Amino acid sequence: MTPLLEARDFSLTIDGRPILKNLSFAVPAGARLSIMGPNGAGKSTLIKCFLRLREGAKTTGEILLNGQSLRVYPRQELARLIGYAPQAGGWIPPYTIRELALLSRYPYPDRSRDQAALTRALELTGLEELANRPLANLSGGERQKAYLAAALAQETPILALDEPTSFLDPRHASELDNLLKDLNLNQKLTIITVTHDLGQPALTGGLALVLRQGTLRYFGEADRLYQDRILEEAFDHPFVYLTHPKDGRVVVLSQ
Amino acid sequence: MSPTWKLLALLLASLVILVLSPFLGADLISFEALSVPGHPEAEVFWALRLPRSAAAFLAGSGLALGGLVFQALFRNPLATPFTLGVASGAALGASLYIWLGTSFLGSLGPLGSALLGAALSMALVYLATRSQGGLSTPVMLLAGVIVNFFFSSLVLFIQYVSSSADSLKITHWLMGSLTGLETARLADLGFIIIVGAVIIRSLATEIDLLVTGEELAASRGVDVKRIKLIIFVVASIMVGAIVSLTGPIGFVGLMVPQACRWVLGWSHRLLTVAVFFGGGAFLALADLLARVILAPAEIPIGVITALAGGPFFLLTLFSIRRQGQLL
Q1: What was the pLDDT predicted at A149?
Q2: Domains defined for chain A, CATH in brackets
Q3: What integer pLDDT is reported at residue B102 of this predicted model?
């Protein structure tokens, strides 16, 4: 079966500096993929490459979506296939959550589903009451959820989320994890997240992809991530692996 | 009041100003005079006042729209076609023409020379930005500021080396003026501004998305490079055409869009309409003041808009402090 998203010997260079090197992997439809790695490993760049947000850079190799080169997709069609939520830091757009989510409907010239998509996105993220609040007046965590709501309003089969839980407190992070789990398992969405939480793949299962200085250090089942010193080598740092007393999953601690 | 009602109120106020401004001035023109054939007031109205008010309105609309889209594109309230060098390019072209006359720029005339200068500055900013890869906003702003300073210095140089009569002419041109516009030129200006405004209005959603950030806009399906180029070229042509006809009338592109954002928020579907009419009304009003304050003498309209610009900057500064961000 054709993988949903596939990298074939994909490399990317910016200003002569190699950022991603010879990446090859295949993500099947309905997968849950966690992209991990130390700072500067190229995680965010990789997720942006799935959306063709690095078009100015020099690339070799190919990224394929549904067996076709990403390059052949018109931008709007790509936006109907992959929803994107950026990291919540940096520039804060001067819009309300509702306005931001409605702007995500841009790839759909037919406006008839806009309100339904907006309502659903707000319900799923629990942001109904904050819908008319400007992003500038939200906490970091709320803003992160607002970006997720906007990505959900895109109604795409794939979600690409750049550190969706990094500004969230434990309760909200757990709620968001449950939401993504539900979207993945019950609504069959393919979910790709960049995460700094090394225990995340143990919690969510699915696939893990580990980068170090732009090279692929691991791609495979999340369960195997904690064997063979994969994380130690990628992060150049010792870790301790514990078993969660309640559900038995792996918990990773920095040594 | 909802943004739509605010917009309607603004449109009404703008239309009132547009309709009344040609009747007002050093001498009032009565409505009755217009219906009397050959009445001297009617002659003044049709031949002088109306074309001038129309020119003020069109120039104000175009300058304000140019400011609106550049501010949105660069997410910076100081980014306008003026700060990006278009006006200084036009000023250089006009100054060169005044200094060297037909011997150098042939039959282009002062208008053609100014437009050529504006085009040159646009091309320089564009090429300098492209040479650094893509159309990066900070690079474009920096390139604009550099071109602006360089061309302004050249204008100063030309003023220094030219005769005192030419230097005075250049100074007058730099102050901006709406006097003596020919009807044919006014029709050209109207065509450029209206076509430009329609193009910009049709890109309102794309502009909204660009304000959220270029990557987010691209991820939602906007062809960022193409849209930025269209906006850059359309706004520059509009402003270049205005400046070549009226001289540089500053601050309109800074003040009107910012004021409209305070009132209406950030939907460019509303803002493009509000700024078109608001900018037109603002300059028609400024022109009225220019005509009456020292009547029968006239103050250059650029002086009036610049005088309003100072206090407005202070307001902007306070608003930045209040909102905690630039725009």
Answers
A1: 95
A2: 1-81+158-174+187-255 (3.40.50.300), 91-155 (no CATH)
A3: 61
Rounded Cα–Cα distance for residues B259 and B312 (Å): 9
Place of tokens 């061309």: B151
**Count of domains in chain B?**
1
How confident is the model at residue B324, as a pLDDT? 43
Cα→Cα distances B76→A92, A190, B41, Å: 13, 37, 46
How does residue B103 score in pLDDT terms, banded at 50, 70 and 90?
A: low
Mean pLDDT, chain B, whole residue set: 85
Tell me, yes or no, if A80 comes closer than 8 A to chain B by beta carbon: yes
- Chain segment B206-240, per-residue pLDDT in tens: 999 999 988 999 999 999 989 988 998 898 888 88
Q: What is the pLDDT of residue B134?
A: 62
Residue B216 to residue A56, Cβ atoms within 8 A = no
pTM value is: 0.89
Q: What are phi and psi of B195, to 5 degrees?
A: -60, -45
DSSP labels, A92-134:
--SSBHHHHHHHTTTT-S-GGGHHHHHHHHHHHHT-GGGTTSB
**Residue B233 tokens, joined:** 């070229």
List chain B residues with CB under 8 Å of A56: 133-134
Total CB pairs under 8 A between chain A and B: 68
What is the mean pLDDT of the segment spanning B179-192?
A: 81
Sign of the CA dihedral A127, A129, A134, A136?
Answer: negative
Q: Which residues of A touch B267 (CB under 8 A)?
A: 99
How many beta carbons lie within 10 A of that of residue B247, not counting itself? Answer: 25
Length, in residues, of chain B = 327
Name the residue among A90, A106, A136 with its Cβ closest to that of B221: A106
B182 in contact with A at a CB cutoff of 8 Å?
A: no
Could A79 and B75 be called an inter-chain contact, meaning their C-beta atoms sit closer than 8 Å?
A: no
CATH number assigned to the domain comprising residue B301: 1.10.3470.10
The low-confidence residues of chain A, meaning pLDDT below 50, are: none
SS3 call for B250: coil
State the pLDDT at residue B320.
64
A94, B324: Cβ pair inside 8 Å? no
| B167-181: pLDDT as tens digits | 888 887 787 777 767
Indicate yes or no: CB of B216 within 8 angstroms of CB of A84: yes
Query: How confident is the model at residue B326, as a pLDDT?
Result: 47
ipTM above 0.90, yes or no: yes
Residue A48 forms contact with B (CB below 8 Å): yes
| CA-based nearest residue in chain A for residue B208 | A103
Inter-chain residue contact A93 with B218, CB threshold 8 Å: no
Residue A100: which of B134, B212, B222 has the nearest Cβ?
Answer: B212
> Chain B residue closest to A147 (CA)?
B216
Give the residue numbers spanning the domain of B97. 3-323
Selected residues 92-111 of chain A with any CB under 8 Å from a CB in chain B = 92-95, 99-100, 103-104, 106-107
In this prediction, residues B245-260 reach a mean pLDDT of 88
Amino acid (1-letter code) at residue A92? I
Q: How far is B170 from chain A (nearest CA, A)?
A: 41
Q: Of B74, B75, B171, which is closest to residue B125 (Cα–Cα)?
A: B74
Using CA coordinates, name the residue in chain A closest to B221.
A76
